Automatic annotation (TrEMBL):
It comes from Halopseudomonas pertucinogena. Belongs to the YjdM family. Residues 4-32 form the Protein YjdM N-terminal domain. This is Alkylphosphonate utilization protein. It comes from the Bacteria. InterPro entries: YjdM (IPR004624), YjdM_C (IPR013988), YjdM_N (IPR013987). Pfam families: YjdM (PF03831), Zn_Ribbon_YjdM (PF08274).
């Protein structure tokens, strides 16, 4: 019986070593042996307008009035957006704004709260 750690993503016991990292064959999750987090090509680093690194679940504040495409609504400066989700592409934040609904935002128009 090996003393390898269980997968942090799916808690599978069937993990194996691959060079300087562990790999889970069930969910394909990879993590460093030393426990440090590493950004990979699949996970781009997304930063706010002030250069702070954003993560899923963060709360951000809008720093500029933003017109809502296809509507006469405006997202006002100072609007807090909770529980963001980071996605790739031009608009890299998926969120839900009270009174407006689901939106995609650019990280350059928000700051981390």
């Amino acid at each position: 019986m090996s003393a390898l750690p269980h997968c942090p993503a799916c808690n599978s016991e069937y993990t194996y070593e691959d060079g300087i990292q562990y790999v889970c064959p069930e969910c394909a999750h990879e993590w460093a042996k030393d426990g440090s987090a590493r950004a990979t090509a699949d996970e781009p680093v997304i930063k706010d307008a002030h250069g702070n690194v954003l993560q899923d679940g963060d709360t951000v504040t809008v720093i500029k009035d933003l017109k809502v495409k296809g509507s006469s609504s405006v997202v006002k400066v100072g609007t807090k957006v909770k529980n963001i989700r980071l996605v790739g592409g031009d608009h890299d934040i998926d969120c839900r704004i009270d009174g407006i609904g689901a939106m995609k935002l650019k990280s350059e128009f928000v700051k981390k709260s």
